[in-house]
Specification:
The protein has a single domain, classed as Flavodoxin domain (Rossmann fold). The longest helix is centred in the C-terminal third of the chain and has 25 residues, at 163-187. The radius of gyration is 16 Å and the shape is globular. The protein has 190 residues and is of the alpha/beta class. The strands form two sheets. Strands 2-1-3-4-5 form a five-stranded parallel β-sheet, sandwiched between helices. Strands 6-7 form a two-stranded antiparallel sheet. It is 37% helix and 24% strand. 39% of the residues are buried. Bound molecules: flavin mononucleotide. Flavin mononucleotide binds at residues 12, 14, 17-19, 85-89, 117-119, 148.
């Protein structure tokens, strides 16, 4: 089996977002996990419009170049770490839109969630879990969450509490075996 590939999906596309700092920290912390390669995937850089495919993604007939480009990137991973802030007690519209664009490329993969907000973004994470179930992503129970008030200086500079290293470690401990198991499932002869 080839080495696992995990995409760290940056779920905020907002100018001035803190999401990139969180994603970079997650990437840095993940480097010690040599059983997988990790890559930051910035939803903003794919310039996805609001869903403009005429046929639902589950039918797999993508017509737009931006969809095909996004599908190819999503397909290249065995699992994901979704980085989501909390917007109005939910995940970001940009992340939901990006998930909606494709379907088979998400199927039978594993995911962990990293959330942040004034209450740790835990409500956003719960809403994200509902969406992930529908695209057949197995999301692990462990979760890393960051408080805007204490894990960020002046609500803008990411300075996570040292305990969060272990918290993210638990996400990786759960995610990597599931990503490996699901890779075997996808690669098993039908
Ligand atoms: C439209 C919008 C809605 C928000 N709603 C919430 C919320 O419901 N709960 C919360 O804790 N923070 C909320 N926030 C604050 C965000 O969590 C905070 O601005 C965070 O930095 C956003 O992440 P980003 O900078 O990576 O986009 C909201 C921010 C925006 C822009």
């Amino acid at each position: 089996m080839s080495k696992l590939k995990i995409g760290i999906i940056v779920g905020s596309t907002r100018p001035g977002r803190v999401a990139e700092q969180v994603a970079r920290w997650v990437l840095e912390q993940s480097r010690s996990r040599t059983e997988a390669d990790f890559e930051i995937v910035d939803v903003a850089s794919f310039h996805l419009p609001l869903l403009d495919e005429p046929i639902p993604a589950s039918l797999g007939r993508y017509s737009k170049d931006h969809t095909k480009r996004w599908a190819e990137k999503v397909a290249s991973f065995d699992g994901y770490i979704f980085i989501t802030p909390e917007y109005n007690h939910g995940l970001t519209g940009a992340l939901k839109n990006a998930i909606d664009f494709v379907w088979a490329e998400w199927n039978n993969k594993a995911a962990g969630i990293v959330s942040y907000g004034s209450a740790g973004g835990v409500r956003a994470a719960e809403s994200l879990r509902l969406v992930l179930a529908e695209v057949k992503i197995a999301d692990v129970r462990s979760q890393a969450f960051f408080y805007l008030g204490t894990d960020f200086e002046n609500y803008t500079t990411f300075k996570p509490d040292p305990s969060k290293v272990e918290m993210l470690g638990r996400v990786l401990n759960d995610l990597l075996p599931w990503a490996k198991a699901l890779k075997a499932l996808r690669e098993a002869p039908a």
